[in-house]
């Protein structure tokens, strides 16, 4: 019986993926890839390898493993921290691929969209399934670029655990903070991987400190690096007191030596490791009562006697409780430290069972994702990730159920659990997946098909792309009738444009990119309006009086109030129409036609001639609200972005000078190794084309991250310039 099916996302050929767990429902866990219309493979798995390409070595793992041996994990990080490189190494060591992919050469498995390979960045999440030492790992590589934050959210909400990858020379960066917060929201147990230990400026200590300070997390140091930057050659396993050294003659890092640390050969390292292990034991005992009892009882005199296995179990529990995060290190590029990372994934991150999802189920057509390839399978055991096809009316965030009664039962249970929520450990959230928070798009532009005849094709393409990516918004300009694309950033819109061309064969034209402004009013204003129209032999007559006044909410939804004189009976039949009218008026402000925020609308009086249609009531209210908004003093609000620029010391002054010209407001300049990190705010309108400008200013030595902070009032001079420009006066 099909009970709960939670749609996580859709794609162009409508392939959401499904997470199946062990009771009576299953949910869509990750929408991963577009399905190409190729013939699906049969169930004779022995014939699969040849069919899905030379790169894939083995598909024996299609056989269902027990749920305790499944790990559904994501990889998350700041852009360029090395997620894709780490994923490629993981795939190679697990035997999934035969050769090492390289982002710089554009031949990775997970970055398979053409744009990803061309630009060397991850845009869409890719899913791969592989085995590691008897465990089945379903892994999702997520994008790091700020324009694709929603894609990261889509993935996080369906994962059981995550690996956060850091650039060890930079520590916690802006985007890491964002994804970390998202992972907190979805309560995802994590382990940290300090990558790029080989890079000049890499510092294990610095990166660990930044995890402690910026993420406010308690790092559990499970490894120590042997050497740093140029001298990095291996690591110490603090739990087992072993050293792991990679063979310098091995090109691919497959061979490495694991040896117990001995007093005779490594006295210093052994001392350092023993201290780190003792500190780790104390730290874990502090967080886990069961372990504390063990340590205080049997092993209080000598922690050295404590078996590694006991410590590992306790670390697993602490990781699951999210009271601390295991920290590991390595260099994906130099092929060091990835196998122990995989061991840690299986050892410390939870199985779906431990995350208490309650699902199990069968579906008529299931596909296993192998990046851009899919293999049809007949069934899947609990805890796995798979894709399903053909759900045409379902979008991201939906829950599908097999019958009304099961839906009601699930809702009732969620409600009951919701009531207990404050007392108990939030059972309701386990039952239903949290929704995806869709960020407000800050840019928009017009999009036109090559000819009027192609308009329906464009609409179809946009509809499909929107189902896959809800952060893309499409609307019609009521005045010009043009189609408007609203997105998260320049790159986001560029990629959508490119995908329409490549995937739907449509050459479209984009208008200039524009900032999504908002408007508000500064004082109250009243207006009255009458609409009197006779259609056929029916007279429609409405008279309305409204007041618009500013309030402090930072919300696009107007607060709607009714004067006491308005009769309840009248409201019963016309409230919906009144509110529709108010909302539609607030969508198009009087200054720029942008949405109006922070307003309250009071309906002071309403008279309706008997037989007047509700559409006429809506139209009259809308016109009257627009009149009131027009009368008030008005203000344009512009998106203000949080900006973080990391730049080599030598280039700090040109960057600051440039930001001053962009109306930037610098809050703080931090020192991070040899770099300066500039933190501040800048209006979005001033930051268009910034990546190119920054590259030129700093000879490519700087990176930046951008995130919407708030909408702020423009100063009168800038507002006038903008209004004049929009009305064609300048
Ligand atoms: N020195 C050094 N460079 C690395 C390491 N890992 C990755 N890189 C380099 O860092 C750059 C970014 O690597 P990616 O793997 O694409 O990073 P990413 O986090 O997937 O980037 P996005 O997909 O754009 O978010 C590439 O030039 C890699 O070669 C490492 O361990 N050491």
Automatic annotation (TrEMBL):
GO annotation, cellular component aspect: mitochondrial matrix
CDD domains referenced in this protein's UniProt entry, alphabetically: EF-G, EFG_III, EFG_mtEFG_C, mtEFG2_like_IV
SMART domains associated with the record: EFG_C, EFG_IV
Chain sites annotated for binding GTP: 77-84, 141-145, 195-198
Primary localisation category: mitochondrion
Catalytic activity: GTP + H2O = GDP + phosphate + H(+)
PROSITE patterns: G_TR_1 (PS00301), G_TR_2 (PS51722)
InterPro entries in alphabetical order: EFG2, EFG_II, EFG_III, EFG_III/V, EFG_V, EFG_V-like, G_TR_CS, P-loop_NTPase
A Gene Ontology molecular function term of the record: GTPase activity
Localization annotation: Mitochondrion
GO biological process per UniProt: mitochondrial translation; ribosome disassembly
Pfam family membership, one: EFG_III
Alphabetical keyword list: GTP-binding, Mitochondrion, Nucleotide-binding, Protein biosynthesis
Ranges for domain Tr-type G: 68-353
UniProt family annotation: Belongs to the TRAFAC class translation factor GTPase superfamily. Classic translation factor GTPase family. EF-G/EF-2 subfamily.
PANTHER family in UniProt: RIBOSOME-RELEASING FACTOR 2, MITOCHONDRIAL, TRANSLATION ELONGATION FACTOR G-RELATED
Function as written in the Swiss-Prot or TrEMBL entry: Mitochondrial GTPase that mediates the disassembly of ribosomes from messenger RNA at the termination of mitochondrial protein biosynthesis. Acts in collaboration with MRRF. GTP hydrolysis follows the ribosome disassembly and probably occurs on the ribosome large subunit. Not involved in the GTP-dependent ribosomal translocation step during translation elongation.
Protein name: Ribosome-releasing factor 2, mitochondrial
Organism this protein belongs to: Cebus imitator
